[in-house]
From TrEMBL:
PANTHER family noted in UniProt: PROTEASE FAMILY C15 PYROGLUTAMYL-PEPTIDASE I-RELATED, PYROGLUTAMYL-PEPTIDASE I
Listed Pfam families: Peptidase_C15
InterPro entries cross-referenced by the UniProt entry: Peptidase_C15, Peptidase_C15-like, Peptidase_C15-like_sf, PGP-I_bact-type, PGPEP1_Cys_AS
Recorded family membership: Belongs to the peptidase C15 family.
Chemical reaction(s) catalysed: Release of an N-terminal pyroglutamyl group from a polypeptide, the second amino acid generally not being Pro
GO cellular-component term (any): cytosol
Gene: pcp
Active site: 78, 141, 167
Annotated organism of origin: Anaerosphaera aminiphila DSM 21120
Subunit structure: Homotetramer.
Keywords: Cytoplasm, Hydrolase, Protease, Thiol protease
Protein's UniProt name: Pyrrolidone-carboxylate peptidase
GO MF term set: pyroglutamyl-peptidase activity
Job description of the protein: Removes 5-oxoproline from various penultimate amino acid residues except L-proline.
Location(s), subcellular: Cytoplasm
Length: 221
């Protein structure tokens, strides 16, 4: 069985991306799963296409996307992705969409298919700070999380994929000139990702049935 884990290239003047640096330290096998590592561009128009091609090529049972959340101190599983791109800064191709739907035929939001509460519980039990987030933002991290969950939901042959997104802090090397900014070592983040992966593999997933209710998000505010 395959597990696809993705991280991003550096962006916003950084020379490394903490998520992908930690991913590179992961073993090639965890429990019974082959760990397939993929670096994604921080580019709105390309990132989802590259992710989908990897899913089609490797047919993973689990897809875990990792992003860098500079300024955060915790490992942060994301609960929900929303159908909007609203970029604070340009992406690595110079694109800066404002209030643009990711997919016009998509739901307003898709919920993570990861056991996010169990991930946080298991991380805390290992003295790793962790918390659930209810907003993945509106930059490329939310874009890729939404694109992943949209793809899973829209394609019957991939409906069984367990997919979601986790944010991680800066590395220690990234905050040398950023006073009072929290960070973790690459090894600490890698350990957190390994625990998260083991949790996802072992724990049953409780999905939220969004079809039973109507969800409305006002993106104009």
């Amino acid at each position: 069985m395959n597990l696809l884990i993705t991280g991003f290239e550096p962006f916003d003047s950084e020379t490394v991306n903490s998520g992908y640096e930690a991913i590179k330290l992961l073993p090639d096998k965890i429990l019974d799963y082959n760990i397939i590592k993929l670096e994604l561009p921080v580019i709105f128009e390309d990132s989802i296409d590259i992710l989908i091609k990897a899913i089609e090529n490797f047919n993973p049972s689990i897809v875990l996307c990792i992003g860098q959340a500079g300024g955060q101190a915790n490992i942060i599983p994301e609960r929900v992705a929303i159908n909007i791109d609203d970029a604070r800064i340009p992406d690595n191709k110079g694109m800066q969409p404002v209030d643009v739907p990711i997919f016009k035929d998509g739901e307003n939001a898709y919920f993570s298919k990861l056991p996010i509460k169990k991930i946080v519980e298991n991380l805390k039990s290992e003295n790793i700070p962790a918390d659930i987030s209810n907003s993945a933002g509106t930059y490329v991290c939310n874009h890729i999380m939404y694109g992943l969950l949209y793809f899973i939901n829209k394609n019957k042959e991939y409906n069984s994929i367990i997919g979601g997104f986790i944010h991680v802090p800066y590395l220690e090397t990234q905050v040398v000139n950023k006073p009072n900014t929290p960070s973790m070592t690459t090894e600490e983040i890698c350990r957190a990702l390994k625990i998260s992966i083991e949790t996802i593999i072992k724990e049953p997933v409780k999905n939220i049935d969004t079809k039973k209710k109507s969800y409305f998000f006002d993106f104009s505010v």
